[in-house]
Amino acid sequence: MTEHTPTPWRVQAGSGNSEEAFTITTSDRVIASVAGEGYANRQANAAFIVRAVNSHAALVEALRSAIDCVDEQATVIQELRSGGLATVAIPGWYLDAKKLLEEAAALRAAEPD
After folding, report:
1. Radius of gyration of the chain (CA)
2. I need a surface site. Which of 2, 8, 74, 75 has the fewest CB within 10 A?
């Protein structure tokens, strides 16, 4: 799979012409032009794309770390319970966090192949 253009990306406004597209760039190349209905809408869409792209790697890493933490805690709880400590209480956060593990498919979808 080909790598995407390195981040950070930025929004470059046009000359102020209300019909002009916003351009998404890096320091040395144009990535895309964002056209559409209305100046404010084009500006908002371009900013949203750039914010999503620039934060993607950090968000994927944060979710991966959270999933790893929950998975590690689940392993500890299971080991305690199977080792004769059946009365070990399952913390309330664990039940919520277990849902995070079940929804890890969203992380797999966001990661490159």
Report:
1. 22
2. 2
Instruction: Tell me the percentage of the chain whose pLDDT exceeds 90.
Output: 29
Max Cα distance, the chain (Å): 73
The pLDDT tens digits of the residues spanning 12-53 come to 987 666 678 899 999 999 999 998 888 889 999 999 999 999
- Spatial CB neighbours of 15, under 8 Å, sequence gap ≥ 6: none
Q: How far apart are CA 108 and CA 113, in angstroms?
A: 9
What dihedral angle (degrees, nearest 10) is formed by the CA atoms of 50, 52, 53, 58?
130
Burial degree of 100 (CB within 10 A; 0-12, 13-18, 19+): middle
Amino acid found at 65:
S
Place of tokens 């794309």: 49
Cα–Cα distance measured from residue 111 to residue 71, given in angstroms and rounded to the nearest whole number: 19
Contact predicate 46/9, CB 8 Å: no
